[in-house]
Specification:
Number of strands: 0
Structural class: mainly alpha
Distance between the termini: 130 Å
Radius of gyration: 35 Å
Order of helices and strands: HHHHHHH
Largest sheet: none
Number of helices: 7
């Protein structure tokens, strides 16, 4: 091995040069009372983690409100198109909000790996299905009450028919 080969092998690599320059920069920053590159990177990582945590907390806080707004829209649509006295019961409203909020936040669950990704959607479909069944039943009941009230009002306004039924 020649002297030139030895000198080439002793040449620092680009990674070593970058590390050395970073170390010199940190030394200069410390001497000047400034934060080092490592400290700056750590602070940026901490701020990003806090920002992500804040975003997750905000999403968890807003998810029930979003679910509630969706329920309000559904209830309003049913009132407008099916029956004006329709109302979603409070216990059903609470269940739907509770089951739909995780879908909006979309966080993991304790189910098999292949299904864990879809658990919030499955729960939401279950809650909405229950709401639908209960809503259809309530609409039928309201329509029956309206029909009975109409028959009563018609009977009260038509005294001739009432006399015929009493005579029979």
């Amino acid at each position: 091995m020649s002297i030139e080969d030895t000198e080439l092998q002793d040449q620092p690599t680009t990674e070593e040069q970058a590390a050395f320059l970073a170390e010199l920069g940190d030394h200069d920053a410390t001497a000047n009372g400034e934060p080092t590159q490592t400290e700056v990177e750590a602070e940026q990582a901490e701020q990003q983690a806090m920002s992500e945590a804040d975003a997750a907390a905000m999403a968890a806080e807003l998810a029930p409100l979003s679910a509630q707004m969706g329920l309000f829209a559904i209830e309003s649509a049913i009132q407008a198109f099916v029956h004006p006295r329709f109302a979603i019961p409070d216990h059903r409203r609470a269940e739907v909000i509770q089951e739909c909020a995780p879908v909006l936040v979309k966080y993991g669950a304790l189910v098999p790996d292949w299904l864990a990704h879809y658990e919030p959607e499955i729960r939401a479909v279950k809650a909405i299905g229950g709401l639908t069944l209960e809503s259809v039943g309530q609409v039928r009941q309201l329509k029956a009450e309206d029909a009975a009230a109409l028959v009563s009002a018609k009977a009260a306004n038509d005294p001739g028919e009432q006399g015929d039924t009493e005579a029979a």
